[in-house]
Amino acid sequence: MSVSAIGYLRIASTDTQAWMNFGCNVLGLMEAPREDAGGARFLRMDDHPFRFMIEPGDSDGLLAAGLEFPDAAAWQATLDRLAAAGHEFTQGSEDEAARRCVKAFATTDDPAGNTLELYWGRRLDYQPLVSPAGVPAFVTTWKQTGDLGFGHAVLPAPDIEAATTYYTEIIGTGLTDILSIPGMDGMKVHFMHANNPRQHSVALFSGPHPLGVVHIMLEVENMDEVGRAMDRAKAAGVHTLASLGRHVNDNMCSVYILAPGGIAVEYGYDGLLIDWENHACTYSDEGDLWGHEYDFPGVNE
């Protein structure tokens, strides 16, 4: 495996202030104020300078997912595999890298058209999280084993087999679990892990999505923090997409809420951590042990 973690997301928003209010006051993230020529706002959750870059846009959706590599050699080897397989990529300039607080990065699209930013050398700021909502910490590391990333992202990939081959054979992830989605005939999710214990860092959904991302996940340290986030979401009038429940494959006990613009955010606790030397890819045909009753806006009304 070449990928260390999913490090950050760039998100386009038609109302960046609404996204910042949601990120800080509901999710409990912390604003990282700094000047940006593009008018972006930045949200952090640990000692990384940001995990979410919220950029002004004419529409809402995911712009890019940043995948972290352990060093320059692993990063370059991945670029070499991309070139050998005929995939185009563009290396970022020094100014663009500085904006992302990385040593170097390259931009490429996966077979489904999802934009990836492959990077190495993240510059940390080592400042403690001071959550405006009182969240003491987010789960982004474990027993000093290194970065777990911000959580995970599920990306649309109608040709899921081609996309899975791309991620596993070129980008450098491992296949963890394949879910046949109950009630959605023929639809699947492929869960893929990076070189850290989190059960999955990236997943692929075998269908399209208008926002370019099915959902993103943030993890907190205990169930009380999930409950408090549920209360904050309710008080703020945020729509709950899925009630509290626990997933089968990654054990996450979570709730799903909608960010401004419609991106679904899973907010959870107790995600499974795996020793990859002793793991075999599994196949699931149930999504949940219990709960997660969905309420899609405009569908369940």
Structure overview:
With 301 residues, the chain is α+β, with helices and mostly antiparallel strands. It has one domain: 2,3-Dihydroxybiphenyl 1,2-Dioxygenase, domain 1, CATH 3.10.180. The chain is 19% helix and 33% strand. It is built from five helices and 18 strands. The strands form two sheets. Strands 17-10-11-12-9-13-16-15-14-18 form a ten-stranded mixed sheet, with helices on one face. Strands 2-3-4-1-5-8-7-6 form an eight-stranded mixed sheet, covered by helices on one side. Strand 15 and strand 16 form a beta hairpin. The longest helix has 13 residues, at 72-84. It is globular, with a radius of gyration of 18 Å. The N and C termini lie far apart (44 Å). The mean pLDDT is 96.
List keywords for this structure.
19% helix, 8-stranded mixed β-sheet, alpha+beta, 301 residues, 10-stranded mixed β-sheet, 2,3-Dihydroxybiphenyl 1,2-Dioxygenase, domain 1
Overview in brief:
This protein is of the alpha+beta class and 301 residues long. It has helices at residues 16-26, 72-84, 94-100, 160-171, 223-235; strands at residues 5-13, 30-31, 41-44, 52-56, 61-69, 89-91, 104-109, 115-120, 151-156, 174-180, 188-193, 202-205, 215-219, 240-247, 253-258, 264-269, 282-284, 288-291.
List the helices and strands and how they pair.
Layout: E1 5-13, H1 16-26, E2 30-31, E3 41-44, E4 52-56, E5 61-69, H2 72-84, E6 89-91, H3 94-100, E7 104-109, E8 115-120, E9 151-156, H4 160-171, E10 174-180, E11 188-193, E12 202-205, E13 215-219, H5 223-235, E14 240-247, E15 253-258, E16 264-269, E17 282-284, E18 288-291
Parallel strand pairs: 1-4, 5-8, 9-12, 10-17, 13-16
Antiparallel strand pairs: 1-5, 2-3, 3-4, 6-7, 7-8, 9-13, 10-11, 11-12, 14-15, 14-18, 15-16
